[in-house]
Task: inverse folding
């Protein structure tokens, strides 16, 4: 797994080709590649303040934000816009696909697990719609009496699906209620080699989001777990089936929210 010691408020300006090679090798072998100590303490503290203020607006319950508006208002915007970050994502995509990405667009999101609704958003195993996923831990529970909500994944369980309709059908089956009960079972995780990845703020974790079936383990309702996610390289972004996939994901989130009322 990749290590480093470049801490700055605008990180990833000096990521070398050797760094990217090591990330690619770790992602293919272990499942996750890590750039260590690349998010400064000052950025983390300001981002945590941003999360806490947003959490108050959501009454201490789970929420997620997507799109460019939230990232522009957050302390992570400098990293998001840095040329180094874009270059790492682009090079990883090209190594995985042996082709240029369909666009330079990065899809940023932030997830905050808290309250009873946060429990509903744990162990929801899924494949991403993007080839490369970068995960930035912001708040991770660390007290001895807390559940940390580790990342858990079945590394590279499938290949990238080149056809959008095949990807949508497979995701619907794998991410069904019955499928998710299977993936969270201990015997399935042992049999298929699931890997638990502890998350440490300051690091950035890279994995093949479209290939790795993944989820977060649960946290206690009184704890707060927050991660920022940056997805890159959707080979189906121009497909007519894309809107269907997005509506399905939004419907799942609405059902989860309704079950807590």
Result:
């Amino acid at each position: 797994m990749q290590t480093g010691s470049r801490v700055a408020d605008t990180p990833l300006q000096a990521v070398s080709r050797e760094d990217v090679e090591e990330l690619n090798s770790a992602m293919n072998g272990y499942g996750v590649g890590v750039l260590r100590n690349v998010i400064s303490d000052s950025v983390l503290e300001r981002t945590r303040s941003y999360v806490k203020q947003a959490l108050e607006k959501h009454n201490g319950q789970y929420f997620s934000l997507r799109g460019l508006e939230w990232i522009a208002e957050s302390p992570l915007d400098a990293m998001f816009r840095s040329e180094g970050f874009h270059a790492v994502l682009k090079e990883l995509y090209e190594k995985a696909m042996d082709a240029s990405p369909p666009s330079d667009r990065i899809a940023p999101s932030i997830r905050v697990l808290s309250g009873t609704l946060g429990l509903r958003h744990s162990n929801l195993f899924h494949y991403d719609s993007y080839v490369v996923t970068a995960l930035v831990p912001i708040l991770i529970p660390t007290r001895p009496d807390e559940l940390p909500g580790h990342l858990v994944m079945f590394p590279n369980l499938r290949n990238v699906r080149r056809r959008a309709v095949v990807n949508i059908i497979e995701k619907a089956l794998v991410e069904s209620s019955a499928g998710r009960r299977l993936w969270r079972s201990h015997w399935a995780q042992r049999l298929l080699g699931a890997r638990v990845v502890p998350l440490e703020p300051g690091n950035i974790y890279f994995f093949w989001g479209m290939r790795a079936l993944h989820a977060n383990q649960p946290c206690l309702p009184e704890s707060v777990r927050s991660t920022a996610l940056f997805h890159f390289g959707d080979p189906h972004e121009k497909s007519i089936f894309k809107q269907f996939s997005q509506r399905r994901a939004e419907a799942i989130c609405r059902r989860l929210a309704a079950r807590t009322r």
User: Anything to note?
Assistant: The chain has ten helices and nine strands. Residues 41-57 form the longest helix (17 residues).
